[in-house]
Every structure is written in C-alpha cells, then in structure tokens.
Amino acid sequence: MSQHKVVLLLGSNICDKKNNLDHALERLKEVGDILKNSEYLTSEPVEFVSSNNFCNIASLIFTHLSPIQLLNFIKKIEIEMGRLNDSKISGSYTDRIIDIDIVTYDALKFSSERLEIPHTKHLFERDFSRILLKDFI
Q: How far apart are CA 8 and CA 137, in angstroms?
C-alpha cells in the first residue's frame, strides 16, 4: 500500500480543548502514522463571533487512505466526539468540540462539494493557520 503525506489542522473551542485535540490525534493513529505535530496555538474564532477561543494544532501524517476515505474517517471522529454542526453542510461556523481539516494531501489538487485540496483558506487567508503550518508546507 502506498503512503500519502497529509497535513491536517485541528481545532477545538469548547470543553477541554487540548484534550479534545489529543483524543482526535490518537484516533488518527488508526489510519496513519503521525510524523510531526506543531505546538498548540490559541486563536480567536474566524468568520464567526464567539467568546470561546480555539486551541489549534497542525499535524503531518502518512496514511494509506484516499482523500475521500480520510475525509470520511475524519467526519466519523468529529461526530463520535460530539460535533453537531458541519460548516460545509450548514454554510456557517459555530463553536465546536473538534474540527479537523485536510490542508494538503501529497501535491494533489482536488475539488468536490465535500472537499477542497489544498485548503486555500488555511494556506493563504488565516493568520493562525500560517503560524501553525510554517514548518509543514
């Protein structure tokens, strides 16, 4: 099986934020090897108003899953951890226990209703993302 190099961004802004990120990273080990994690970073919500700041982390993994298989696994983690609102479906952002985004997948360029790779907002528009990704991209 071939291994794919994937950069993920994870964020949480409710409950035990750091523990939420650590739990999601543990679950990701089921489908790949984590090669490197960034430092944790606290940031204010982007594109919505909340009094709850985020705890964020970037992670570099190797996985055998295809982009859609990985996305399906990520969505399963989010639902199992209690995430109720998917911003792709609802069209808006809210507080969330966990958010996991695929930022890059090898050098792939891919776009569908459910997934865009690379994740251009994280690469070019969000300050917190650029800080976390500086050693990954």
A: 11
